[in-house]
Automatic annotation (TrEMBL):
It is an enzyme of class 3 (hydrolase). GO terms for biological process: AMP biosynthetic process; ATP biosynthetic process. Keywords: Hydrolase. SUPFAM superfamilies: Nudix (SSF55811), Phosphoglycerate mutase-like (SSF53254). The keyword Iron does not apply. CDD domains: HP_PGM_like, NUDIX_Ap6A_hydrolase. One of its GO terms (molecular function) is 8-oxo-7,8-dihydrodeoxyguanosine triphosphate pyrophosphatase activity. Its EC number is 3.6.1.55. This is 8-oxo-dGTP diphosphatase. InterPro entries: His_Pase_superF_clade-1, His_PPase_superfam, NUDIX_hydrolase-like_dom_sf, NUDIX_hydrolase_CS, NUDIX_hydrolase_dom, Nudix_hydrolase_domain. Residues 6-132 form the Nudix hydrolase domain. It comes from Allobranchiibius huperziae.
Length: 309
C-alpha cells in the first residue's frame, strides 16, 4: 500500500539475528544527528511502506532484509510542526554486503537490553518490546503466504475472445509492477497462479525480476472453482504443507474459500481480518500478506497485512 494523507511517511525495520542462541538486533548511528535508532527512511513518491522499509534497510546497513511481522508504528512531531509517521517490521538479513552509506557510519548488533540502553529516543523502545513479545510467543521467525487478487482487467463486455485470455488494463499493469517491490520485501520465492492471463500477468513482473517460474494451477481458475471448489482448497493445503514463501494469485469468487480456510488456523485479530476480507473481498491487485509459523496442520497465521493499490 502506498502512503497517503498528510505528514512525512517513513518506514524501517528491526533487523534481528541469533548468535549462539542469543537474540540480537541491529542499531544504526547517524553522525549528522549523533543518534542511535532503527534503520528507516522516507518513502519515495508512489512507493509502498513495505518496499520502502526493505530499501531503506539495505541502503543504510548494506543488509538485504526479509520482512516479517509488522511492529507498532511511531508518530511524532517535527521541528517544522509537521508529523512524521514511521511504520516498522521485524526482519531478518538474507543477503547484502554490509557496506554502509554516508548517512550511517556504524551498525552494531546488540542484545535487547543493551539496545534499549543505546537507543537515543525513548519512542523506539516500543518496537523493541513488541519484537521481544513476539519472540516469547514463538511468532518472530515466520514464513509468508500472500493471497493476491489479480489486477484490473479488460471488461468482459469489451472482450470478444476467451475470458481466460482477458488482459490487464494499463492500470492493472501498473499495479502488477508495483507488487514487485512489495512481494520482494517479504521474500516471496514461489508463485502459484490461476492460468488466466489476468492472473499470471499480475505476478509476471515479479517472476521476471526474480527469475521465478509461475506455476499455473487450473484449480485456482474461476471456471474450475465453479464446478470443483475443493481443488482450490487443495492448493492452499499444499502451500501450508510446504511452508515456503509463496504467493497465490486468483480471482474474486475463489478468494472467500481460501481465506476461510486460512482463518481456521488464525487466532484473534488475524482471524477477524481474514473473515472480513472473505466477506468484503480484496481490491483488484491487492495482496493479503499472511505471516505464518509452523507448517501443515500446525501452521498458524500470526499477522495479516493488506498491501493495497
Amino acid at each position: 500500500m502506498t502512503a497517503q494523507g498528510g505528514g512525512q511517511p517513513a518506514a524501517g525495520a528491526l533487523v534481528w539475528r541469533r548468535e549462539s542462541g542469543v537474540l540480537q538486533v541491529a542499531l544504526v548511528h547517524r553522525p549528522r544527528y549523533d543518534d542511535w535508532s532503527w534503520p528507516k527512511g522516507k518513502l519515495d513518491p508512489g512507493e509502498c511502506w513495505a518496499g520502502a522499509a526493505a530499501r531503506e534497510v539495505l541502503e543504510e546497513t548494506g543488509l538485504r532484509p526479509r520482512l516479517g511481522i509488522p511492529l507498532p508504528r511511531a508518530v511524532y512531531g517535527l521541528r517544522d510542526g509537521s508529523l512524521k509517521e514511521v511504520r516498522y517490521w521485524a526482519a531478518q538479513a538474507v543477503g547484502g554486503s554490509g557496506t554502509l552509506e554516508n548517512e550511517i557510519d556504524r551498525v552494531e548488533w546488540l542484545t535487547p537490553p543493551a539496545a534499549r540502553e543505546r537507543l537515543t529516543y525513548a519512542r523506539d523502545s516500543l518496537q523493541l518490546q513488541a519484537l521481544l513479545d513476539a519472540d516469547r510467543r514463538g511468532a518472530l521467525r515466520t514464513w509468508v503466504l500472500a493471497v493476491v487478487r489479480h489486477g484490473d482487467a479488460v471488461s468482459r463486455s469489451s472482450w470478444d475472445r476467451s475470458d481466460t485470455d482477458r488482459p490487464l488494463t494499463p492500470q492493472g499493469k501498473k499495479r502488477a509492477a508495483a507488487l514487485t517491490p512489495a512481494l520482494g520485501a517479504y521474500g516471496v520465492r514461489r508463485l502459484v497462479s490461476s492460468p488466466s492471463t489476468r492472473c499470471t500477468a499480475t505476478v509476471a513482473p515479479y517472476a521476471r525480476a526474480h527469475q521465478l517460474q509461475i506455476r499455473e494451477k487450473r484449480g485456482l481458475s474461476e471456471e474450475v472453482f465453479a464446478d470443483e471448489p475443493g481443488r482450490a482448497l487443495r492448493h492452499m493445503e499444499r502451500a501450508l504443507e510446504r511452508g515456503e514463501f509463496t504467493a497465490l494469485c486468483t480471482h474474486r469468487p475463489v478468494l472467500p474459500a481460501l481465506l476461510h480456510r486460512l482463518a481456521e488456523q488464525a487466532p484473534g485479530a488475524a482471524c477477524t481480518t481474514l473473515l472480513e476480507r472473505a466477506r468484503d473481498g480484496l481490491e483488484k491487485g491487492e495482496a493479503l500478506i499472511c505471516q505464518m509459523v509452523d507448517v501443515g496442520e500446525a501452521a498458524r497465521v500470526v499477522s495479516v497485512e493488506r498491501n493495497r493499490p
